[in-house]
């Protein structure tokens, strides 16, 4: 089983919202390196417990945070907005990570895009925005409630 952040990272790559290393808007998982200036990072965060099934099994919606960093406020905001709006429309999308399939049934933002400030490094100013959300995620071939 891959982490939800890894599944969403692959989804961003599939949707051309993030690129692999060496490209514009590099996408990372769980660690945002100092370079490049334009970067996206997907983190696992607190999710939402949604009660128990009759057999006692817990239903969990994993939490995700996406951080977008860039040198220009408007451009970085627009990238965060593109990601948020694209994920808002996701439903029953199949994503393959390391030969394992997952269905993202939906993505629900827990609030608006949050500007988290400006970082100054070596004379460069980089703007940061975060998007927080919970997922309904299922591994292919497993019952719906299994995350």
Structural commentary:
It is built from two helices and seven strands. The chain has 147 residues and is of the alpha+beta class. It has one domain: STM4215-like (2-Layer Sandwich), CATH 3.30.2000. Strands 1, 2, 3, 4, 5, 6 and 7 form a seven-stranded mixed sheet that branches. The mean pLDDT is 90.
Core attributes:
single chain; alpha+beta; STM4215-like; 7-stranded mixed sheet; 7 strands; 48% strand
User: Which CATH first-tier class would you pick?
Assistant: Alpha Beta
CATH topology: STM4215-like
CATH architecture, please? Answer: 2-Layer Sandwich
The outline comes out as elongated
The biggest beta sheet is recorded as: 7 strands, mixed
Q: In angstroms, what separates the terminal alpha carbons?
A: 9 Å
Overview in brief:
The chain has 147 residues and is of the alpha+beta class. Helix content is 18%, strand content 48%.
């Amino acid at each position: 089983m891959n982490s939800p952040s890894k599944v969403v990272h692959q989804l961003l790559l599939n949707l051309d919202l993030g690129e692999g290393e060496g490209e514009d808007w590099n996408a990372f998982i769980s660690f945002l390196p100092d370079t490049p200036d334009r970067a996206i990072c997907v983190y696992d965060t607190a999710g939402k417990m949604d009660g128990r099934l009759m057999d006692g099994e817990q239903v969990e919606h994993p939490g995700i945070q996406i951080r977008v960093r860039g040198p220009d406020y408007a451009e970085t905001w627009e990238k965060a907005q593109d990601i948020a709006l694209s994920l808002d429309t996701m439903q029953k999308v199949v994503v393959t990570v390391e030969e394992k399939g997952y269905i993202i049934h939906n993505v629900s933002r827990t609030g608006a895009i949050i500007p988290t400030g400006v970082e100054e490094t070596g004379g460069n100013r980089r703007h940061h925005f975060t998007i927080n959300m919970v997922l309904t995620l299922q591994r292919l071939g497993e019952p719906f409630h299994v995350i």
